[in-house]
Amino acid sequence: MSKKVSKKDLSPETRAIINSQVTRRGFLTGAGGIGVASFLGLSMAELNAASTSGSVRWANWGYYIDFDEKSSKYPTLEAFTKKTGIKVTYQEAIDDNDTFSAKVSPQLKLKKDIGYDLVTPTEWMAARWIASGFTKKFDVANIPNKKNVIDLLANRPLDPKREQTLPYAGIIAGVAWNKKKTPAGFKTMDQVFDKKYKGKRQILVLSEMRDTIGLIMMWQGVDIGGKFTEAQFMNAVNKFDQLIKDGYIGQIKGQSYAQDLQSGNVSHVIGWSGDIAQLNLQVGSDQFGFAVPESGGTFSSDNFLIPSTAKNQANAEKLINYYYDPVVAAKLSAYINYVCPVKGAQEEMAKFNLKQSKNPLIFPTADTFKKLQVFRGLTPSEQLKFSTAFQKVSGNG
Amino acid sequence: MVALAKKVDINNSIASLKQKVAMPYLLLLPGMLWLIVFFLSPILTLVSTSTKEPGLGFGEFIQTYRWANYTDALVNLQEQFIRSFVYALIATAIALAIAYPLAYAIAFKSGKWKNVLLVLVVAPFFCSFLLRTIAWRQILAQDGIVFKSLVTLHLISPDTRLTSSAFAVITGLAYNFLPFMTLPLYASLERIDPRTLEASGDLYANGIVTFRKVTVPLSMPGVVAGTLLTFIPAAGDFVNAQILGNPSTTMIGNVINAQYLQTANYPLAATLSFLLMLMILALVLVYIRKSGTEELV
Fold first, then answer.
1. B254:A395 CB<8 A
2. Is this structure's pTM higher than 0.80?
3. What is the complex's ipTM, to 2 decimals?
4. CA distance A396 to chain B (A)
5. Chain A residue with minimal CA distance to B131?
6. Alpha-carbon separation of residue A349 from A20, A69, A326, A327, B187 (angstroms)
7. Rounded mean pLDDT of A73-96?
8. Residue percentage of chain A with pLDDT more than 70
9. Partner B, chain A 190-219, Cβ-Cβ below 8 Å
10. CA distances from A387 to A240, A379, A393, B50 (A)
């Protein structure tokens, strides 16, 4: 990422971000971890006590938890161990939903331990795990904080009563732009793909099918959370194809899109909320705008779930319960900058960072939520067919 | 007593003969094992994966010996195959055009700067391949010096874009593989005996004729090696097309990458990988035959 401002001009949080150079769907952050440093400094005796009370093995995405650079420790996890005596083996093992699941599924099928008691795949993949019988139902008694899950995510088709999954963090996809290039910003998809951008290849979209095609489908008036048909999906893919052929779309990218937005290579992007929050923090001003188009934006979440082969189910449940404590959730969200799925965390965050607690990208307002839809679960054959079609149009298949 | 001694002697020599016969095989063993474990078995796995069909579960593929995967891939992805070879060919030609004078200058005209120049040719390797490619995006960007200069010179209109284009992809390929072209060329040019050039002059050939009739033929092994070392990786590359291209400039490497990691359609990815290998192998064989150079540096 280019650094146009001198590091000295930046706030301590921003410097921490730059120094940490972290990335998970964009560069997540080093910010907000400040204030939890007091949790560090566990004594050896405490650690030993912890190891006697059992353990839990958690596979999560890279750079997706609060991290203290100086001690190379995860403050909220350290605090959990201190509180419960449960030792956490935290591994950044998930790089991609498909590859991770393909790797562990043979063992799951054979009912052999996959080495994790807790995993956090994205919702659509979590749905596939449930459908394949790869999950364990929660023992609700261990997760009293389950009641804190926000309403939007409390009742999802993949798991209507939240008996085996709970969201870890939420991700909004919408349109983001550089205010220097487009001071007025974008309110609708018609503005995003206005005729004046034809042939300019100035727009960048996400390589995540559910977000890019999801936004186009919503633009076409399709309810992506409902029972849309294959024809409706393909209709959006055709529209996408046309947008590429007409030279609207310059590139289709994963997390590195934010650099293009920053360097001025593109005028606007279909991107993720957390990244834009980070980008603004990084440049130290509100240079980048983010909006959910009027036709709607996509919302997805990464979900805690316990694999059917887990050896430490109760400990995994205690860990989930811990992250559903609003105080802990506030600390985590202040660091990772993605949508917090826990009720009451906003009030808790206000106590140590009032400004961030008002960030609508971490705590979206009711109006924003109204416009968000989660892409419905696909059957395995739909998944293969749709993703093949998407790759084909993207020039990759 | 003597006869016994002779018999022992014969036995000894038979044993040593056996040893002599077995020795080469023993010496070959580590290499063969290496090839079996790290070349043959992966290739067989690749071929076996390529005839499977995707099942409905996670990473589940059913072996159906569907050889039609190959024809399907060729029909559906001919565009990307052709594009890969065309881009690689153009990039190789550009790299040759840049590297030949460069290698010639280093070999014959650089004097005491020879080592410094050689280090400079290799210097880009000290920086990551990815970083160098991403740097090209900045170099060719709208607010970059190349774009602005070209616009000022009225060579391109301000509305064109240099990034996200076939131009950028080919430029990136030619740049990234330039050292692979330069070094073999330098090696074969450097080996040319200056006396052959003098002899050519003594026979009343001027500089151009000497270059055409003596230098070029003698540097052919370097040209063949350099073009192969550039063309082969360029044809299978996906980084340049991914970073510098747009959805209409994807190469076969991008398809393989996406099929493995995004769609998780391993059979198609395996089919494409195997096809790409076969095609490159065929092209290389024809090329070496035609150029008549058996001595590849």
1. yes
2. no
3. 0.70
4. 4
5. A1
6. 22, 22, 9, 8, 65
7. 91
8. 86
9. 200-201, 207
10. 13, 12, 10, 19
Domain tally for chain B? 2
CATH of domain A171-299+372-393: 3.40.190.10
B140-174 pLDDT tens trace: 887 788 888 998 998 888 877 888 889 999 999 99
B225 plus B120 within the same structural domain: yes
Query: Which range (A176-190, A201-215, B156-170) has the least confidence?
Result: B156-170
Instruction: Calculate how close chain A gets to B208, using CA atoms only, in Å.
Output: 46
pLDDT tens readout for residues A124-156: 889 889 988 999 999 999 999 999 999 888 988
Q: Virtual CA dihedral for A171, A172, A174, A179, nearest 10 degrees?
A: -80
Domain carrying residue B87? 76-291
In the stretch 178-237 of chain B, residues with CB closer than 8 A to chain A read: none
B58 contact residues in A (CB cutoff 8 A): 101-102, 105, 128, 132
Of the candidates A99, A252, A265, the beta carbon closest to that of B141 is on A265
Average pLDDT for chain A: 83
State the amino acid at position B132 in one-letter form. R
- The minimal CB distance from A96 to the residues B246, B254, B261 is found for B261
Whether B31 and B115 map to the same domain: the answer is no
| pLDDT(A157) > 70 | yes
Pull the structure tokens for residue A270. 């279909």
Cα A113 to Cα A103: distance, rounded to the nearest angstrom? 13
CATH superfamily for A29-169+301-362 is: Periplasmic binding protein-like II (3.40.190.10)
Mean pLDDT of B276-296: 83
Best mutation site among A265, A266, A379 for testing chain B: the one with the most B CBs within 10 Å? A265
Last residue of a domain, one of B66, B85, B117: B66
Tell me whether B131 touches chain A (CB under 8 Å).
no
- The answer to whether A251 contacts B56, with C-beta atoms less than 8 Å apart, is no
pLDDT band at B85 (very low <50, low <70, confident <90, very high): very high
Measured at the CA of A295, the angle between CA A293 and CA A298, to 5 degrees, comes to 70
Q: Which residue has the higher pLDDT, B136 or A157?
A: B136
Contact between B57 and A244 using a beta-carbon 8 Å cutoff: no
Report the relative pairing of strands A203-206 and A268-272 from DSSP bridges.
parallel
Question: With an 8 Å Cβ cutoff, are A387 and B257 in contact?
Answer: no
Q: Tell me the C-alpha distance between B221 and B207, whole Å.
A: 21
Contact B264 A99 (CB under 8 A): yes
* Residue of chain B nearest A395, judged by CA positions: B247
What CA–CA distance (Å, rounded) separates A184 from A207? 26
Name which of A163, A161, A112 is nearest A308 in CA terms: A112
Name the pLDDT band for A47 (thresholds 50, 70, 90): very low
Residue B107 sits in a domain of what CATH number?
A: 1.10.3720.10
> Is there a contact between A396 and B138 if contact means CB atoms under 8 Å apart?
no
Percent of chain A with pLDDT over 90: 51
Is the model's pLDDT at A72 over the cut of 80? yes
B39 belongs to a structural domain: yes
CA A250/CA A241 separation, integer angstroms: 12
Residue contact A99–B261, C-beta within 8 A:
yes
Mean pLDDT of chain B: 89
Instruction: Answer whether B77 touches A (CB < 8 Å).
Output: yes
